[in-house]
Structure formats: C-alpha cells, structure tokens
Amino acid sequence: MGCGIRVGFLGPAGTHSEEALRASAPPDAEEVPYPTIYEAVMAVEGGELDRAVVPIENALEGGVAVTLDTLALEATGVRIVAEVVHPIHHCVVAARELDLADVMRVISHPQATAQCARFLRERLPHAERVLAPSTADAVLSVREAGGPAVALGSRLAAELYDCRILEA
After folding, report:
1. DSSP string for 27-65
2. How confident is the model at residue 168 (pLDDT cuts 50, 70, 90)?
3. For residue 63, what are the β-bridge partners?
4. What b/e sequence results for 145-160 when a residue is b if at least 16 CB atoms lie within 10 Å of its CB, and e otherwise?
5. Angle in degrees, CA 40, 67, 47, rounded to 5
6. Which end of the chain is more exposed for a tag (fewer CB within 10 A), N or C?
7. Which residues, including other chains, have CB under 8 Å from residue 51's CB and lie 6 or more apart?
8. Does residue 11 contact residue 154 with C-beta atoms inside 8 Å?
9. Residue 94 carries which DSSP code?
10. Of 112, 147, 93, whose CA–CA distance to 17 is shortest?
11. What is the pLDDT of residues 55-72, one digit of tens each?
12. C-alpha to C-alpha distance for 66 and 146, rounded to whole angstroms
C-alpha cells in the first residue's frame, strides 16, 4: 500500500506549499490542507501528521516569521528533516478574461503581494490590495466574487478552480 505518510501544507488546494509538497513528497503521500502554517506545524507536533511542508524563507522577503516562531517557541518536538527549494512563479488570475486596465482589486497572501510589488506598482497601480490567508484562497475569492478582481496565485490554483491566467 506504500508508505502512507500524511503530509500537511498551507491550504486550500493550489497553494505554492502544495506545489512544493508535490515536488518533494512520495507520490503516495496523503496531502492534508490546513488553514494556517501554524496549524500545519502544530499537527506534526500533535501527531496528527507525519510531516508538513511549510515555507521557512523566501529570497525577496526573508524568513517567514510564523514558521520560525512556531518551530522555535511552540512545536519544540518538530524537527526539520529536509529542505525543498521551490521556485515561486506567481500568476495574475481572474475568473474570466479581463483587461488589466479594468482591474479594481488585487487579492493575495501578504508574501505574494510583497513579492509582486514592482509588478503591482507598474501594471496595477490603482487597484485596491486585499489580503487573503493563502494564494489559493485568493483565487477562490476571485472565482466567487466575479467582478473586476484578480488574484496573485499559482498556476495550479488557476487550473484547479477553473480560472484564467491573465499574466504569468
């Protein structure tokens, strides 16, 4: 039946954390989404999961504070067992075809918004910025809301939620 390990990640399905999990975990690993990085790490601490794939650092924004704090202060029984270097490629995702000039709102996780700051300044300077718990949550929000909104998210999320990639 395979190794049967349970691996958590920042959900919902379609996050960059899930992409990293798919690139690194055994193919028969059970993928378990969690609403926050904290909850994914604490599920390992509590024995609900065998592992979690969570972001610990990114090249533009540095260390991911919630991961570092959780590992150092609360999940003292959790150990880092591997490093996955996962290139992040954000996409501008919409529920339907949309001209960037018509976009009124950009929804994403704070890390993605920071990583795409230059693009946002140059291409979407008048769009309101709205924060989401994850990039996949942002894509789901855009799909549900309709209207002239876009998400910064992964190609995987755009595919999973039947959305359009306006820019990659």
Report:
1. TTPEEEEESSHHHHHHHHHTTS-SEEE---EETTTEE-H
2. very high
3. 57
4. eeebbbbbbbebbbeb
5. 35
6. N
7. 5, 6, 7, 8, 25, 44, 81
8. no
9. E
10. 112
11. 998 877 788 888 999 999
12. 31
CB contact at 8 A, 37 and 64: yes
**Which residue carries 């979690």 as its tokens?**
52
Strand, helix or coil at 118? helix
Task: Give the Cα separation of 146 and 160 in Å (integer).
Answer: 17
Task: Write out pLDDT tens, residues 75-129.
Answer: 999 999 999 898 889 999 999 999 999 999 999 998 899 999 999 999 999 999 9
Residue 145 has pLDDT above 90, yes or no: no
The single-letter code of the amino acid at 19 is E
pTM (2 decimals)?
0.80
3-state secondary structure of 160: helix
For residue 68 the two structure tokens come to: 């570092």
Residue with tokens 């909104």: 149
Q: What is the average pLDDT across 134-159?
A: 93
Look at residue 19 and give its three-state secondary structure. Answer: helix
Locate 156 and state its tokens.
């995987």
